[in-house]
Design brief:
Distance between the termini: 85 Å
Mean pLDDT: 81
Shape: elongated
Strand order of the largest sheet: 1-22-18-17-21-2
Order of helices and strands: HHEEEEEEEHHEEEEEEEEEHEEEEEE
Number of strands: 22
């Protein structure tokens, strides 16, 4: 009895023991987490609406530059290659076989120096024939000239005789008239004398006219002979010059840069056989971006700086054709040039596009590659934030951008690259 009571008592006591209570977190944790996420989303939306995405950046990894008002240096910088001021193509004036090569490649030549000689037997025969023709024409001319001089003397004599006869007839007829008036000579005699006078006067006039025609014909023949002789002389002179052309000479002083012939080679007339570079001055050839094609013109000043010295240049030629978004420009030295100038050597040159003038400027930076100059991060006055700000870029040179809108002197901007900033509207600088 007692054991049964004890069993029931213990059973009742175990069943009556109180269970532990659950905490508020355990009871409502899913609701709390959901609410927190919703609040965070609302905060994100509010931030996006109010100020865009923000990004923290390390101040040591960015470059902050001042917006200043200073002289804008309107120039373009490029690399140029030294070239001779002039290059002359060496062409064969006559065909022939290379008989002798006098000058080698690289030789410095003076105008008229012999470079090589050619041999052309056919040309030599032609020249001999032309010279023989000239000599024959010359001798014939001398003979004809003597004949025409003699004929001219005879014509002058005949003309003088005819004029004398005409004068004598006029005097005789005048004397006959006086005799008729004095009654010494009859009317019949005077008429006979008058008819004779008329006849001889007309005859003498025809004779004089014939003499004048003969004289004019003689002069014309003399002119034709002179022309023939002059033509023969020019042919002979030209033939002599052609013979001289078999000796190839330097047309100008300079360096024989190359000679493309060998002994025994047959060279055609007008064939390019070499090249001479004029070395008394040099030019610099460069290529500029098509961005500057409307601003670069002949006569613009330029310069090259080498070893601390500045050497003035000027634009001497602008090729208007654009290839691969670039155009070609040539410049020449206007004063002294570097001592060690060599063909093929490169220099950095600066072409001045305009006189320096005051402008709002910022230094060049990699930010331009991302923004294209349409916007920039402007730093606030406290230096802990940078806001994306629209700008307008004007002129540019290798070290400066001209700002014509969006920024004022005294402000600060970030000029380093923006590749890691994404689409952030605001940078938090730490």
């Amino acid at each position: 009895m007692d054991n049964k009571d004890t069993f029931h008592e213990s059973r009742d006591s175990s069943m009556d023991k109180a269970l532990p209570k659950r905490s508020v977190w355990q009871k409502y944790k899913y609701y709390i987490l959901g609410g927190t996420a919703f609040i965070a989303f609302l905060v994100y939306v509010l931030l996006a609406v109010s100020g865009g995405r923000k990004l923290r950046v390390n101040s040591e990894r960015i470059v902050i530059a001042d917006v200043t008002e200073a002289p804008f240096l309107d120039y373009v910088d490029a690399e140029g290659i030294i070239q001779p001021i002039l290059t002359i193509k060496l062409n064969a004036l006559e065909s022939g076989m290379v008989q002798q090569i006098v000058a080698e490649e690289g030789t410095m030549l003076h105008q008229g120096d012999t470079i090589m000689t050619l041999q052309n037997p056919e040309l030599e025969r032609t020249i001999e024939e032309q010279q023989a023709e000239w000599e024959s024409q010359r001798i014939l001319y001398q003979e004809k000239r003597l004949e025409m001089e003699q004929k001219s003397l005879l014509l002058k004599q005949q003309t003088l005789q005819a004029e004398y006869e005409l004068s004598r007839l006029e005097k005789d007829y005048a004397l006959g008239m006086e005799e008729f008036n004095m009654g010494v000579k009859s009317k019949a005699q005077l008429d006979v004398q008058h008819e004779e006078y008329i006849y001889k006067t007309k005859n003498t006039a025809l004779q004089l006219e014939g003499l004048r025609h003969d004289s004019a014909a003689t002069i014309l023949r003399r002119e034709l002979m002179n022309n023939d002789l002059e033509r023969a002389r020019k042919n002979s002179t030209h033939a002599g010059k052609r013979m001289d052309n078999l000796v190839v000479r330097a047309p100008i002083s300079g360096q024989l840069s190359f000679l493309n012939v060998t002994l025994g080679q047959q060279v055609r007339q007008s064939e390019n056989i070499g090249e001479i570079k004029v070395m008394d001055n040099f030019k610099i050839r460069t290529q500029l971006s098509e961005y500057y094609i409307d601003r670069v013109m002949v006569g613009l000043p330029a310069s090259v700086t080498y070893q601390g010295e500045k050497y003035p240049l000027k634009v001497s030629k602008v090729v208007p054709e654009v290839r691969d978004r670039q155009f070609q420009v040539e410049l020449i030295f206007t004063e002294e040039k570097p001592d060690n100038v060599r063909i093929g050597k490169s220099y950095r040159i600066q072409v001045e596009l305009d006189q320096p003038d005051n402008a709002i400027i910022i230094p060049r930076g990699d930010f331009f590659q991302v923004t294209g100059g349409q916007w920039i991060y402007k730093v606030n006055s406290s230096g802990d934030k940078a806001i994306r700000t629209p700008i307008t870029v004007g002129r540019q040179n290798p070290v400066q951008y001209e700002i014509i809108g969006g920024l004022e002197p005294g402000e600060k901007v970030i000029t380093t690259g923006y590749a890691n900033f994404g689409d952030a509207d605001e940078l938090i600088i730490k």
